[in-house]
Automatic annotation (TrEMBL):
<keyword id="KW-0472">Membrane</keyword>
<keyword id="KW-0812">Transmembrane</keyword>
<dbReference type="GO" id="GO:0000139">
    <property type="term" value="C:Golgi membrane"/>
</dbReference>
<keyword id="KW-1133">Transmembrane helix</keyword>
<dbReference type="GO" id="GO:0006506">
    <property type="term" value="P:GPI anchor biosynthetic process"/>
</dbReference>
<dbReference type="GO" id="GO:0005789">
    <property type="term" value="C:endoplasmic reticulum membrane"/>
</dbReference>
<keyword id="KW-0333">Golgi apparatus</keyword>
<dbReference type="GO" id="GO:0016788">
    <property type="term" value="F:hydrolase activity, acting on ester bonds"/>
</dbReference>
<dbReference type="InterPro" id="IPR007217">
    <property type="entry name" value="Per1-like"/>
</dbReference>
<comment type="similarity">
    <text>Belongs to the PGAP3 family.</text>
</comment>
<feature type="transmembrane region" description="Helical">
    <location>
        <begin position="281"/>
        <end position="297"/>
    </location>
</feature>
<feature type="transmembrane region" description="Helical">
    <location>
        <begin position="309"/>
        <end position="327"/>
    </location>
</feature>
<feature type="transmembrane region" description="Helical">
    <location>
        <begin position="125"/>
        <end position="150"/>
    </location>
</feature>
<feature type="transmembrane region" description="Helical">
    <location>
        <begin position="194"/>
        <end position="212"/>
    </location>
</feature>
<keyword id="KW-0337">GPI-anchor biosynthesis</keyword>
<feature type="transmembrane region" description="Helical">
    <location>
        <begin position="162"/>
        <end position="182"/>
    </location>
</feature>
<comment type="function">
    <text>Involved in the lipid remodeling steps of GPI-anchor maturation.</text>
</comment>
Length: 345
């Protein structure tokens, strides 16, 4: 009898726990759930009604199933309806909670953010755009330094052996921050996958780059040997996320391992090499490590705008500036070393 009661309560606790793990506290709330279900049926939350939901029910009733018409357009409408319903139910529920003296809770894995012109997380969008601008500025000044300021070889190529690797890095970074800005403006299945995929691609590539630069791998064949297995893994991981399962926990582990590994590689290299700009590496590694803590110690948005994730995007802006400055220094350093060698011969 005791065992029965024990196992029953254990199952109850476990099922509650699974329920909590499965959904955020906010969308677990029956009041919120009822509000969203009602809204998706009627297109209204209280006095506020949303044209997207109206459109959806009209078209389905009048012209047959939505996929028979322009599917992507109608799909967007459906997303708009769901998003409007969820947002307005969340705002109402959060007001009620505040009146009761309760703090904010997460909905569908996200804190309750205030929208600005329909943008879901304005602070994260602004910081993503700033990161994008920083990478563009950094890459452009690197390009100008290489091809206009530093001496070129007779075949008009740069002396710096890692030039093309950094060009690809610049492109992947800008791509990743572009999709980050899009994703934080409007969080739907498609934008989420594009953001995650480009972030994983950038992280994987910069991991390869960290190995190639710190071990000074200059031989083309050796570079391919190092890059191939990692590229294969990263590609498989991206395909897995997109076409099999968007597993947040597993993706977090993969990203954390690749991220920490490259920070360690740069840190050890900065400690061992006599690179003239190694202090910049130290700052970026420590800054990057501290910024990572913001991702781990998640806190709700201040005034509905600045949460841990937005601040994390903010900290990478100055770090990016310093990072490209290191890359430029590295290009100068390697070029002058190579020129000294050729003169010595
Ligand atoms: Zn983000």
């Amino acid at each position: 009898m005791i065992i029965d009661r024990y196992s029953a309560s254990l199952i109850l606790v476990l099922s509650l726990f699974v329920g909590i793990l499965d959904a955020s506290a906010g969308d677990f709330d029956p009041v919120y759930r009822a509000c969203v279900a009602e809204c998706e049926k009627t297109g209204c939350v209280g006095e506020r009604c949303f044209p997207h939901c109206k459109f959806l029910s009209d078209s389905v009733a009048a012209e047959g199933p939505w996929y028979m018409q322009e599917p992507l357009y109608l799909k967007w409408k459906q997303w708009d309806c769901q998003s409007d319903c969820r947002y307005n139910c969340m705002v109402d529920r959060e007001k009620e909670r505040e009146a009761l003296g309760d703090g904010p809770v997460k909905y569908h894995g996200k804190w309750p953010f205030r929208r600005v012109f329909g943008i879901q997380e304005p602070a994260s969008v602004v910081f993503s755009a700033l990161n994008l601008a920083m990478h563009f500025h950094g890459w452009l000044s690197f390009f100008i330094l290489l091809y206009y300021n530093l001496p070129l070889r007779q075949d008009k190529k740069a002396y710096y052996e890692f030039a093309s690797l950094w060009h690809i890095y610049g492109l992947l970074s800008m791509n990743s921050w572009f999709w980050s800005a899009v994703f934080h403006s409007r969080d739907v299945d498609l934008t989420e996958k594009l953001d995650y995929s480009s972030a994983v691609a950038l992280l994987g590539y910069s991991f390869i780059l960290a190995i190639l630069r710190s071990f000074n791998v200059r031989d083309e064949a050796a570079r391919v040997m190092v890059a191939a297995p990692l590229l294969a893994f990263v590609t498989t991981h991206i395909l897995y996320l997109n076409f099999y399962k968007l597993d947040y926990g597993w993706n977090m582990k993969v990203c954390l391992v690749m991220g920490v590994a490259q920070l360690l590689i740069w840190a050890i290299w900065a400690g061992m090499s006599k690179h003239p700009s190694r202090w910049k590496l130290w700052v970026v590694v420590f800054g990057g490590g501290l910024a990572l803590l913001l991702e781990i110690y998640d806190f709700p948005p201040y005034h509905g705008f600045f949460d841990a994730h937005a601040l994390w995007h903010a900290t990478t802006v100055p770090l990016t500036c310093l990072w490209w400055s290191f890359v430029r220094d590295d290009a100068k350093f390697r070029t002058s070393n190579l020129l000294k060698k050729t003169k010595g011969l």
